[in-house]
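[Solved] Which block belongs to which protein?

Original post:
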Amino acid sequence: MTTTAKPSLFVYYRVPHARKQAAAQAVWAMQAALSRQWPSLDAQLMRRADASAQNEAAEDTWMETYAHPEGVSAALMEAIAAQARALPDGLIGVRHVETFVPLGTPPATPTP
């Protein structure tokens, strides 16, 4: 891995089914505000889609993803955290934040 790897941010948490509409609206608004502040930010909101997730009785697992052509900087990470702290209490569960960097490109496969 090189020092030029550009990190992306992944945030996952649980959302009570009863709050999912309000949570989606709040997170989308948060991501829109971040995208205005950080041009070229690629922010997405996803829901776990496997069969067991669909059968959970009380909550879904959601993930926010953040990528930027220049990488997700410490300043951008703090802006995301600050926006998340402003979300209404109890709307989403505890946020688990992880940062990943690309491994690079696979080596070329020789042609026969």
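(Second protein starts here: sequence line, then its structure tokens.)
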Amino acid sequence: MGTVHGLAPFREYLRGLKRAVPDARALIEQVHEAGETVIVEGRFVGTHTGPLEGPGGDIPPTGASIDLRFADVSRVGDGKIRSYHTYYDQLGLLAQMGVK
């Protein structure tokens, strides 16, 4: 996906993910806080039943189950999220979907 700047592009990214995995759930396993930084560790689970937008066009649904670990790092200030980064294994996601 690359870098997304701003709320509107971030919402579009989430819409695309929800289109591909409509039953998606984020299972939170741990939350760490240090000053203005919050780290969330968890798993993204669901079923690939919709098209996933890829750089070469849509990846058709495979019906595969997904269970993917992730880590989110947020920096907060003045009651707002100032930056948000999510880390996950993109190749692992494609492998779980059965994309070759």
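Accepted answer:
You had them paired correctly. Confirming on the second one: The chain has one domain: 7-97.
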